[in-house]
Amino acid sequence: MAGARCPPEDVDLPHPARAPPAAAADLVSDDDRSVAADSWSIKSEYGSTLDDEQRQADVLSSCNFPAPSDCSSDKDEPDDNEVEPSMLGLQSYWDNAYAEDLANFHEHGHAGEVWFGMEVMDTVASWTKNLCTSMSQHDVGDDVPKDLSSWSVLDIGTGNGLLLQELARQGFSDLTGIDYSGGAMDLARSLATRNGFASINFVVDDILDTKLEPIERQFHLVMDKGTLDAIGLHPEGPVRR
């Protein structure tokens, strides 16, 4: 789920020509709109091109942004470091994004985007493997598994689940991904089955209102690529964080 999607450098991306509704304009900066629109028009490494202008308008028009007074007290001092709310913090944005990706998968077999690019994903997976291997080889506690296949891993906001597939290639086998978008989980399961990783477990779950029972399921490693970013970009970001 959720961080800003970075477009390839060699793609000339148009800026949206359609202005957002007035209700969203006060809460979404020009830079945020540009990032969000670019994420729709990006041509992924799997060849998926998305209709940015219409999708952006649809998402914005469906947003019910609360008034600024709903997000913070009038007595609170403004935080100069606080980011502006963005559509990237809304579940409706990601539901629409993954609905499009799922349709592209069924029609063309496209996997969708590799979050932050293949090089970054490979680096994260390799670094994670090296970290866990090092901990397994040193006596850091009885709770640390002695081999990668015994590490239980939870990926929060897993999206299309491609990072978990890469971890599986690195030797991990007890892998679970959660995302609050049902479309994301449908896509992740389809991709994992197609690529030979049907054992990866994908669950629709909101980390802020999780239904995972800690007594029944515990994890040695919890990962997040951008869920905290999305939480912070919600109009109620400070409260949700």
Automatic annotation (TrEMBL):
InterPro entries with a match to the protein in the record: Methyltranfer_dom, SAM-dependent_MTases_sf
Biased composition range(s): Low complexity: 14-27
Domain Methyltransferase intervals: 151-232
PANTHER family membership: EEF1A LYSINE METHYLTRANSFERASE 2, PROTEIN-LYSINE N-METHYLTRANSFERASE METTL10
Protein name (database record): Methyltransferase domain-containing protein
A Pfam family reported for this protein in Swiss-Prot or TrEMBL: Methyltransf_31
Record organism: Colocasia esculenta
Region described as Disordered: spans on this chain: 1-31, 63-85
